[in-house]
Amino acid sequence: MGSRTASKDIITLRGSATIVSEFFGYAANSILYNRGIYPEESFTKVKKYGLPMLLTQDEGVKSFISGLTSQLTEWLEAGKLQRVVLVIMSKATSEVLERWNFSIETDAEVVEKGVIKEKIDEEITTGNNVEKGVIKEKSDKEIMREIQAIMRQIASSITYLPCLDEPCVFDVLAYTDKDVAVPFTWMESDAKLIENPQMVKLHSFDTKIHKVDTLVSYKNDDWDEQ
Amino acid sequence: MIQRTPVQKKRRPDTVLTDHESPVSDRRLVLYETPAPVTAVDPSDEMVCTYHCRQMVKSDFLLALNNAENQVAEYEAKLAMLNSEFSQSEDERNKYKDRLLSLEQELDASKGREHALQERLLKEVGDSMMRYKDQVKRCCELEVQLNKEIESRKNAELSITSANERSRDLEGKLHRLSDSSEREKNILKRQLEHLQDDSKLSSYKIAADLERMKLRAENSEKESELLRDQLNDLRIQLDECLHEKSGLEHKLLTYAAAPHESASEDNNLVKHLREQLRNYEAEVQEARKLKSYHVNTELLKEKLLEEKGHREKAETELSKLQEVQLHAQNLELELVSWKSLLDELPDVSAVTDIPKKFAALQNETIQTMLEVGETKAHLKQLEVALEMSEDKRQHAEKESSLAKEKAGNAALEVRRLELMLSSVTEERDRVRKEAIMLSKQKIGNEGGLSTETLVKDMESSLVERENTIKELESNLHEQREVVHRLHDELRLLNEQLSTEKRKVKSLEREGDRLRSEISLLETKLGHGDYSAANTKVLRMVNTLAVDNEAKHTIEALRAELKRTQAKLQAVEELKGQSDAANIIDGGIPEKLAQLKGQIATLEKREERYKAVFAEKISVFRRACCLLFGYKIVMDDQQRPDGIPVTRFTLQSIYAQSDDEKLEFEYESGNNTNIVVNDYASQPEISHQIEIFIKKMNSIPAFTANLTMESFNKRTLS
Q1: Which one, out of A95, A101, B1, B566, has a CA that is 20 to 30 A from the CA of A202?
Q2: Alpha-carbon torsion, ordered B7, B8, B11, B12, to 10 deg
Q3: So what family is this one in (chain B) (predicted)?
Q4: Among B607, B578, B608, B581, which Cα is nearest to B593's?
Q5: pLDDT tens, residue by residue, B389-439
Q6: Residues on chain A touching B525 (C-beta within 8 angstroms)
């Protein structure tokens, strides 16, 4: 006869925004490492999402990403962020070579009402040979598992993405609502699109407040075209 | 053949048959009784007659006896025959009984089987009715689903027509957009031309300004050279004056040693000294002017540097202008491409309409995406319903096949039962006939009554069986009709299923088409397209590249600045020590060596002059202090508004503390103002300031008065 005690995984809008922005920070670092934007020796290993994640030690990149994630958190809490795109461009020609697209769907009700979404696990009792069904929406473990899957896919993307033979730089674009006030460290920009790209859809993860879909589009390699 | 009804015997006269006894029926032997003796006959004759009669009678009796014996034998034979026949009939009767019993058993068994079959058939009928009801319900549900699908298909067709209409509208709008884009392109071209002209004009202006500033710088350099020459002359004069001063001092000393000489000469000397002092003061003022000019030259140099910076900026702007021109060319190419796009795009007349059009298109795509999502969901529902209907169809087919099998089995059973019935009826007829025959035979014999009752019972039972068989037949007929009806309904259901299959296939084709549209729209979304009406794209200003570039540029600019500063210092030194302004070009090594030698000698001279000047100045200051009673400290400062000012700090030799200091600011132009400090803000001092400086505008009177007062205080204390 076994029993499991009840536990509540409460997730708030702020918590979900933190999870998403943190995910973006780690994903950006992973992309920079895997695509060779910065040298390997400038990265250190840390444990996150049950995986060894690589974080840059370049102060400039660090400060850039930290400022970015703080602003993304703010926009996510306001429900104003629609998409975040990490763009990889050629340093010499400023041509866009890759776009890592993270689309975000926000639960408008949560943003409006500030409702706390509870995720509850009910007891499973088998004392009287009566098993109640587990009413379980999602747990933090599930979210971490989904994020882990995405990180694995990012790491394995080097198998099909074309090689970046030339020095490249990266930039981050944020697709926000039209009524968002532009902070003084941000400015409006073009979408930096790729002409006739190849696209690969990756996994997504859902915190029940924010759903993040990942997609990478890249310029057709000349070898592939030939 | 055994006669059932034996022939009646002929009655003999000799035989005495009682009425009560029936020899035929009982089949008993009739004893012959001797006849009664005849009376009333002659005794002799009577004796002969009687002998003859007796003999005749005896013969007759013998004959009759023989006949009777023959008859008895015959009768016995007949009896045996009858007995045998009777036994045979009894055997046959037993057989028929047995057969009847067996038939009854079989009938019972068949009855039981029929009952069981009936029950089974009733159950099957009930089950088939239930299944029929279920199938009817499912048919109703499927009809409802069909209606829903038809409605959804109609809605989809309506949406398709509306989308087609919208697409036509969009095409018209794009045509309009193309025209407006051409106009705006022309406007942009004109603006570009204006900008280019403006940039050229500004570059010319900047070049002209640069030249002017260059000329000014050259003039200021020349002025600075002249001023330096003047400064050198003044320094020489100062040296001469100092020499004269030293001579005068010697003279004064000699005059001090010989105090009895004439007062007029002293007065003359004093006058001369005063004049010299005035000259020195004038020279000091001139030196100050020179210093101010020097400061102005430095300012001019700074302005020159600024102008150089402006020139560099103008040059960079020129380079940027070229970049702008390139950008304009790119823009023109983009405009051409946009124009071609606009030609392709319908319903676009002006450039301003393009974003609206794109926004509208994106809204439409979003709406179509939503619709596609809805149709997707609907498709999924239909797929689920299709799967369910297919399962139901398969189940119904299975059930129909099972029902068919059961109906076949029931039909087979019915046929078997019919065959059995036919065989039973044949047997019954045969038994009936035999029973009739037996009854007929038994009527002739005495023991026939029981068989008739048996036959009657059997007949009655047979009649009952026939009735039950008829009932069963009627039930079977009804069940056949039910089975036929079920078959018809199954056929109808199959037809409906086939139509639904066709509809499902068409829906699947629509679903595939919608999926392809969804994939196209997803590619567009993944491409990065967005609705400008609802979305804006932001990026960080201080990106790493910009920071790095800025850092690089800042470092490069700093290095350049240092180099230019070093160059300027070298140039200044060269300009200050040589007369030729073209030394900066410095391409000739001999001249450079000469100039460097000159620079070195001039630097040494300057240092010497500075040292001498410092000595003289210190002597002068001490003299002033002794003569006028104030220690004077001179300090050059700059006000917040940029005006250079010389600050003099005066401390009386009779001051009782170090805080008793007066501060004066001297501007170029002979403006001397007192600076209010703690000491000056004291009531006594401020009162004197008001009287002597503000009212009488005389600083020497103030200082003299202050000196007297402090002297009096000192001496009195």
Answers
A1: A95
A2: 20
A3: Belongs to the MAD1 family.
A4: B578
A5: 677 767 766 766 776 676 677 667 667 767 876 776 787 677 678 767 766
A6: 103
Is residue B668 a contact partner of residue B292, using CB atoms and an 8 Å limit?
yes
CA-to-CA dists, residue B105 to B112, B156, B418, angstroms: 10, 72, 17
* Nearest-by-CA chain A residue for B520: A199
**Cα–Cα distance, A107 to B595 (Å, whole number):** 81
**By the CB < 8 Å criterion, does B541 face chain A?**
yes
- N-terminal to C-terminal alpha carbon distance within chain A: 66
Provide the chain B residues 65-94 that lie in CB contact (below 8 A) with chain A: none
The rounded Cα A177 to chain-centroid distance in angstroms is: 19
Instruction: Please tell me if residue B337 touches chain A, with a CB cutoff of 8 Å.
Output: no
| Interval B556-567 mean pLDDT | 79
- pLDDT at residue B649 tops 80: yes
What does the pLDDT look like over A44-91, one tens digit per residue?
Answer: 999 999 999 999 999 999 999 999 999 999 999 999 999 999 999 999
For tokens 């699908």, name the residue: B149
How many angstroms separate the CA of residue B340 from the nearest CA in chain A? 17
> Can you list the pairs that B4-8 forms with residues at least 24 positions away whose Cβ atoms lie under 8 Å?
B4/B440, B4/B441, B4/B442, B4/B443, B4/B444, B4/B445, B5/B443, B5/B444, B6/B78, B6/B82, B6/B444
Q: State pLDDT tens for residues B73-124.
A: 888 888 888 888 888 888 888 888 888 888 788 878 877 887 888 788 888 8
Render pLDDT for B298-344 as a digit per residue (tens, 0 to 9): 787 787 788 778 778 777 877 777 777 787 788 788 778 877 876 77
Residue B8 DSSP code:
P
**Burial class for B214, CB neighbours closer than 10 Å (0-12, 13-18, 19+):** middle
In chain A, pLDDT over 70 holds for what percent of residues?
A: 82
Tokens 């039962």 sit at which residue? B417
* Residues of chain B numbered 544-563 and touching chain A (CB < 8 Å): 544-545, 547-548
Contact (CB, 8 A) for B206 and B310? yes
Chain B residue closest in CA terms to A87: B539
A41 DSSP 8-state letter:
G
Contact B311, B153 (CB under 8 A): no
* Under 8 Å between Cβ of A28 and A66: no
ipTM, 2 decimals? 0.83
Does residue B27 register a pLDDT over 70? no
pLDDT at position B58 is 83
Instruction: Judge whether B674 and B680 are in contact, CB under 8 Å.
Output: yes
H/E element holding B489?
Answer: helix B449-527
Is the Cβ–Cβ distance between B646 and B665 less than 8 Å?
yes
Residues B658-696: pLDDT tens digits?
A: 888 999 988 876 678 898 899 999 998 999 999 999 899
- What does pTM read for this prediction? 0.35
Nearest-CA distance A125 → chain B (Å) = 34
Residue B447: is its pLDDT beyond 60? no
Contact in structure between B353 and B176 (CB atoms under 8 Å): yes
User: How many angstroms separate the CA atoms of B702 and B85, rounded?
Assistant: 193
Q: Pick from B52, B357, B29: which is nearest to B176 by CA? A: B357
Residues 499-528 of B with CB under 8 A from A: 522-523, 525-528
Measured torsion, CA atoms of residues B342, B348, B350, B353, in degrees rounded to the nearest 10? -120
Cβ(B310)–Cβ(B209) below 8 Å = yes
Q: Could B539 and A101 be called an inter-chain contact, meaning their C-beta atoms sit closer than 8 Å?
A: no
Tokens representing B59 are 């013969």
Q: Is the pLDDT of residue B605 over 60?
A: yes
CB atoms within 10 A of CB B564: 15
Question: Residue A110: CB partners within 8 Å, gap ≥ 6?
Answer: A13, A79, A117, A209
pLDDT tier for residue B450 given thresholds of 50, 70 and 90? low
